[in-house]
Specification:
The chain has 295 residues and is α+β, with helices and mostly antiparallel strands. It has a single domain, classed as paralog of FGE (formylglycine-generating enzyme), CATH 3.90.1580.10. Helices cover 19% and strands 17% of the residues. The strands form three sheets. Strands 2-3-6-12-7 form a five-stranded antiparallel β-sheet.
């Protein structure tokens, strides 16, 4: 998928046929999603059959368009690696899984391929997000989906992830410029509004939970994607860079970009623009995946 970089102060040339999503109302963005799915002969939400292995993850159609990637200096929690704020245009639609991949969904792959967990790892079960897998495992899961469905599945790029998360919004979160634990599962002792106001509440406003919650437990964004903020960090296929300035082409870096924040981290790290580096071979109980299907 081709995406184009332009500084936020520059005019977007040559991509005028693509809608700039922040200029559209929420209803128009929903209609764009429905029209895109109809043009492709798909439902907005769909699952690909996996031969004898059941069905693949539920996917949501994401229309092509433009957005502003990164965060402005005035956004609470802004970090230098989220700059510069810039235009990004994704010229082809894609589909993204409605939720992070669950343990049950990953187990279909494990049973079919003979993949096994290390005995010393904590393993999620049921509808909890799969965890303690490496980038290579996530990529192999995508190849398995591709082989069984005949469609290309992969990890999203950082730009694709943030574009889908924002769904046309420019606020710190797709919910708005502040969140509570009703919308995002983060470390309840490190809420967003308290930090922004430089106040300390006597007690956490949410009961602290020291683990991930079942996938899909928080309200979806405009395009039907759940848990884009909090619960689990999510792999992207993008190599880490120190900022959003155009990077020289290179090979796969040692570090990748992860997005979304997690149950273990402060709410400020769950913002749409927030990004963190993780080693490609790193695994953790707060690191999972969401898959993209090319259309």
């Amino acid at each position: 998928m081709q995406d184009q970089y332009k500084p936020a102060h520059a005019a977007a040339e040559g991509v005028s046929e693509l809608p700039f999503l922040p200029d559209l109302s929420e209803q128009q963005r929903l209609q764009l999603q429905w029209d895109t799915a109809a043009a492709l002969g798909l439902s907005v939400a769909f699952r690909d059959p996996l031969a004898d292995a059941g069905s693949g993850p539920e996917m949501m159609v994401i229309p092509a368009g433009g957005f502003e990637m990164g965060s402005p200096p005035g956004e609470f929690g802004h970090r230098p690696d989220e700059a510069p704020l810039h235009y990004r245009h994704l010229d082809r639609p894609f589909a993204l899984s409605r939720c992070t991949i669950t343990a049950d969904e990953f187990e279909l792959y494990a049973r079919d391929t003979g993949w096994r967990w290390r005995s010393d790892l904590i393993v999620a079960r049921g509808d909890l997000p799969v965890m303690n897998i490496r980038t290579a495992d996530a990529e192999d899961y995508c190849r398995w989906l591709s082989a069984l469905t005949g469609h290309r599945y992969r990890l999203p790029t950082e730009a694709e992830w943030e574009y889908a998360c924002r769904a046309g919004t420019t606020s710190a979160f797709h919910y708005g410029d502040s969140v509570s634990c009703r919308e995002v599962h983060f470390d309840a002792t490190l809420p967003y509004e308290e930090a922004r106001q430089k106040r300390r509440f006597f007690l956490p406003r949410c009961f602290p939970l020291n683990s991930a919650l079942p996938a899909g437990g928080r309200p979806a964004n405009t395009w039907g994607l759940h848990d884009m903020h909090g619960n689990m960090w999510e792999f992207t296929c993008s190599s880490w860079t120190d900022n959003h300035k155009p990077a020289r082409p290179g090979g796969r870096g040692k570090w990748i970009v992860v997005k979304g924040g997690s149950w273990f981290d402060a709410a400020v790290l769950a913002r749409s623009a927030s990004r963190r580096p993780r080693l490609r071979d790193e695994l953790d109980v707060n690191l999972g995946l969401r898959v993209l299907r090319e259309l």
